[in-house]
Amino acid sequence: MPFPPKLLNQGERVVLDLRPHWWRIFPASGFLGLAAVAGVIALSATGNSAVRILFGILLLAALANFVKDYIRWTSENFVVTSERVIHRSGVIAKRGIEIPLDRINTVFFSQSLFERLLGAGDLGVESAGEGGQQTFEAVRKPSLVQQEIYRAMESGERQNYREMGQATAAAFAAGATPAGPSIPDQIEQLDALRRRGAITDAEFEAKKRDLLDRM
Question: Where are the domains of the chain?
C-alpha cells in the first residue's frame, strides 16, 4: 500500500515510497513453488490417498506461509519526504519510526556481492537524539536512496536559509532586531551547506561577508 497522503504535513511532499526488495518474499514463494511441483509429481505418481493428503497439507501450508509474508511485504513502507525519513510496518499491530531530515547526521549502506547483483542492501541512518542509529533491511537500491536523502536534506537546508534570509531582511527593513539564529550560527549553517556542495566557496564567502557586515 502506498504511504497515505493524509499523514503528510502541510507543504510536505513524498520523494520516495518504497516497499522492501522482492528478495524479502523469495523464500516463501520458492517454498510454495517447490511444494506445488512436489504435489503434482506425487499426485501423478501414486494413488495412495494418505500421500495425496500429506502433499495437499504441505501445499496449503506453503500457500498460507506465502500469503502471510506477502501481506507483510505489502504493508511495509520506507518513505523519504521533503521533511522526514519514515519506516512503517505491520498489518494489525503497526510499528513506525520517523527521523526528521534536519536531525540526520550520516546515511550509509552495506551490500554483499549477491545483494549488489539483486539491487538490494541495508541502509543505516545516524541521527541526533535518543534513537542514535537505525538500520533498515532489504532496501531497494540503497545507494540511490542514500543520494535522495542527501538531496532532500540539502533542499530543506536551502529552503530554511532562504526563509531565514527573508525574515532577517524584513526585520532590518522594519528597524527591528531580527529573531532567530545568531550571525555565528548562520555562518555555521552556511559552512555546512558549502561542505555538502549546496553552495560554492564564492557564494559562501560573499554571504559570510554580508553577515559579518551586519554585526
Answer: 25-73, 155-213
Instruction: Write down the residue that cell numbers 558549502 correspond to.
Output: 194
The cell for 205 is 564567502
Q: What is the 3-state secondary structure (H, E, C) of the chain?
A: CCCCHHHCCCCCCEEEEECCCHHHHHHHHHHHHHHHHHHHHHHHHCCCHHHHHHHHHHHHHHHHHHHHHHHHHHCCEEEEECCEEEEEECCCCCEEEEEEHHHEEEEEEECCHHHHHHCEEEEEEEECCCCCEEEEEEEECHHHHHHHHHHHHHHHHHHHHHHHHHHHHHHHHCCCCCCCCCHHHHHHHHHHHHHCCCCCHHHHHHHHHHHHHCC
Confidence (pTM)? 0.65
- The 10s digit of each residue's pLDDT in 21-61 is 999 899 999 999 998 888 888 777 766 777 778 888 888 99
